[in-house]
Design brief:
This protein is mainly beta. The chain is 0% helix and 65% strand. A hairpin with a 2-residue loop joins strand 9 and strand 10 (94-102).
């Protein structure tokens, strides 16, 4: 037997000359935020919140700044309970700088450093944020 699931989405959009322009918001059928931010002439820009499902299968939100539809500056990945689980730095869509992964208690457990999208350092911490003296520098 096959079943069809129909989900009503709630969306607020603004257009200028048939092009997305202005505030945009999309929520699922029970009111959970899927995506919100600003469009300028059809391109996402400014502060955005973007819903996603991680490789582990859990729902989360990413919050940060977009320039011409590319992540720029600090971005946070949050659980549905608003706990930060990742902080990453981008330069026009490319990882550049610290990438920190936190456990649900708020302790850093992994710190990666990126330079123009390439990982240059990898460091591990225990579940209380204590340095495990495991630092790997990656070179060519």
């Amino acid at each position: 037997m096959h079943s069809i699931v129909v989900k009503k989405m709630n969306q607020v959009t603004n257009y200028n000359n048939n092009v997305l322009h202005g505030f945009y918001e999309l929520k699922d059928s029970i009111g959970n935020l899927v995506s919100s931010g600003l469009y300028k002439n059809g391109i996402r820009t400014g502060e955005w919140t973007i819903g996603a499902i991680s490789e582990n299968g859990y729902k989360h939100l990413e919050k940060g700044h977009l320039i011409k539809d590319k992540k720029h500056g600090s971005w946070n990945e949050l659980t549905t309970n608003n706990k930060v689980v990742v902080t990453a730095n981008y330069n026009m869509g490319v990882l550049d700088g610290d990438y920190l992964k936190y456990n649900l208690d708020g302790f850093v457990i992994i710190r990666n450093k990126f330079k123009k999208g390439e990982i240059i350092e990898f460091k591990l911490f225990d579940d209380k944020g204590k340095d495990l003296d495991t630092k790997y520098e990656l070179t060519e």
